[in-house]
């Protein structure tokens, strides 16, 4: 941040999320400086209301906002009859859409003329406000929204609550200076974030290549090969065999939810692992869930052991896996996680690496039952073919590839941390500028 400093004088604002303001700024409510326009959803079963050929009026749902800085297209469009039936407003380019359900607090401008659903609130700046300034202010409000949520089961807001947001209001010329400054500074930060995210993608591709080479070809790229007999696996070194996970494991099973036996979670005790705990090829201790030792005893079938291979078999991360470490026992698990207990302990890491290849992930996706969420049966999991080199070679391959993978994972962790810090910097900069903690006017002069 260059050419920025505090304002010379501040006054109390009377608002919790920005306690002080520059003395020539004021406070206002969103509804006093902008028009707030609720959306709606026409009858989804009436074909006269919906278009899929790209014609009609674009209709924005939460999914159309995801990951976008500006909305240029939508997955669905409406006929004129639908607009009339629901009396839906149409916002022009520049209209801000604020999420009141699901991704509460997300705000994205329209780049096209469009209607929107009831989960979104359209916001059109009035003559006293700069649209870009409102856009940045609403990004800063997000951390304070939980106090306003009106539902304990789903964090929602309504149009009246959003319209009553207390906001800082500098003079219009200052709003424009703040917006111009933030446009420039956030673009630079976003560019740095994009470079780090691309680095993460490249590291993931390299990790995938290292893993695939290891479990399909071994350490010698020139080793003679033979057809494996498994179409997706291709050829393997002539001295390797292939076997299904069923033949390699003494146990393939899964857990259950404690409530099925009348038990509850506890604040401490035996770790209870869910699908969310299997992330980035590791078993994470967070989110932390526990059951009592008595409950763990009753759930004896799914008591986990050191070196068990945990595989997610239900939900968005179906197919992800990780090996359980000694420090993570005793532990138990639920029905969304299967555990594979190989007869030879060295096979846990080997099968994990095989499962993490893109080839097997694609296979798992094709095997998963797509209902409300993907589900992989334990039967199908057990039928997945795995390459099996001689034990001594497995040990050597794991030893050498583990060093390369650990290095790639370390670089990935550093890049992710960089992205996290850049996003924190971006958020702090926006908050400081729109609440007057810093005077950015010289920075855009």
Which helices and strands, and how do they pair?
Elements: E1 10-12, E2 20-22, E3 26-29, H1 30-33, E4 34-38, E5 50-51, E6 57-60, H2 62-65, E7 76-78, H3 80-86, E8 96-99, E9 107-109, E10 115-116, E11 120-125, H4 131-141, H5 159-163, E12 166-169, H6 172-216, E13 225-227, E14 235-237, E15 241-244, H7 245-248, E16 249-254, E17 270-273, E18 278-279, E19 282-283, E20 290-291, H8 293-298, E21 309-312, E22 321-323, E23 331-333, E24 337-342, H9 347-356, H10 358-367, E25 369-370, E26 374-375, H11 378-382, E27 385-388, H12 391-434
Parallel strand pairs: 6-10, 17-23
Antiparallel strand pairs: 1-2, 3-12, 4-11, 5-7, 6-7, 8-9, 8-11, 13-14, 15-27, 16-24, 17-20, 18-19, 21-22, 21-24, 25-26
Helix pairs in contact: 4-12, 6-9, 6-12
Low-confidence stretches: none
Q: What is the molecular shape?
A: elongated
CATH C-level class of the domain at 26-169: Alpha Beta
Spatial strand sequence of the major β-sheet: 4-11-8-9
Task: Provide the residue-averaged pLDDT.
Answer: 93
Major β-sheet, in short?
Answer: 4 strands, antiparallel
């Amino acid at each position: 941040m260059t050419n920025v400093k505090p304002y010379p004088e501040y006054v109390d604002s009377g608002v919790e999320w920005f306690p002080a303001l520059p003395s020539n700024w004021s406070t206002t409510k969103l509804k006093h400086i902008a028009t707030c326009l609720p959306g709606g959803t026409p009858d989804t079963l009436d074909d006269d209301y919906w278009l899929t050929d790209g014609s009609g009026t674009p209709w924005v749902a939460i999914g159309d906002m995801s990951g976008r800085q500006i909305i240029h297209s939508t997955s669905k469009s409406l006929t004129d009859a639908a607009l009339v039936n629901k009396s839906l407003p149409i916002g022009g380019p520049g209209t801000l859409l604020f999420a009141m359900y699901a991704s509460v607090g997300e705000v994205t401008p329209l780049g096209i003329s469009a209607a929107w659903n009831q989960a979104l609130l359209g916001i059109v700046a009035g003559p006293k406000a700069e649209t870009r300034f409102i856009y940045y202010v609403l990004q800063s409000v997000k951390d304070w929204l939980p106090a306003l949520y009106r539902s304990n089961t789903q964090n929602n807001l309504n149009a009246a609550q959003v319209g009553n947001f207390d906001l800082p209001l500098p003079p219009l010329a200052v709003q424009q200076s703040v917006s111009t400054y933030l446009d420039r500074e956030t673009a630079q930060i976003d560019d740095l974030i994009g470079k780090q995210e691309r680095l993460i993608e490249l590291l993931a591709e390299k990790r995938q290549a290292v893993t695939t080479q290891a479990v399909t070809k071994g350490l010698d790229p020139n080793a003679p090969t033979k057809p494996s007999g498994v179409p997706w696996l291709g050829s393997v070194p002539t001295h390797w065999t292939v076997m299904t996970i069923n033949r390699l494991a003494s146990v393939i099973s899964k857990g259950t939810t404690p409530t099925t036996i009348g038990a509850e979670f506890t604040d401490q005790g035996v770790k209870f692992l869910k699908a969310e705990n299997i992330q980035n090829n590791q078993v994470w201790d967070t989110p932390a869930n526990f059951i009592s030792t008595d409950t763990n005893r009753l759930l004896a079938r799914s008591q986990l052991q050191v070196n068990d291979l945990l595989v997610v078999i239900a939900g968005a991360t179906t197919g992800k896996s990780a090996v359980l470490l000694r420090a993570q026992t005793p532990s138990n698990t639920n029905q969304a996680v299967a555990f594979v207990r190989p007869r030879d302990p060295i096979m846990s890491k080997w099968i994990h690496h095989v499962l993490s290849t893109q080839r097997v992930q694609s296979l798992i996706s094709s095997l998963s039952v797509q209902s409300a969420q993907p589900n992989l049966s334990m039967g199908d999991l057990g039928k997945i073919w795995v390459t099996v080199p001689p034990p001594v070679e497995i040990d050597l391959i794991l030893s050498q590839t583990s060093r390369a993978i650990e290095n790639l994972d370390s670089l990935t962790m550093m890049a992710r941390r960089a992205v996290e810090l850049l996003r924190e910097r971006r958020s702090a900069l926006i908050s400081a500028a729109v609440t007057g903690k810093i005077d950015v006017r010289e920075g855009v002069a």
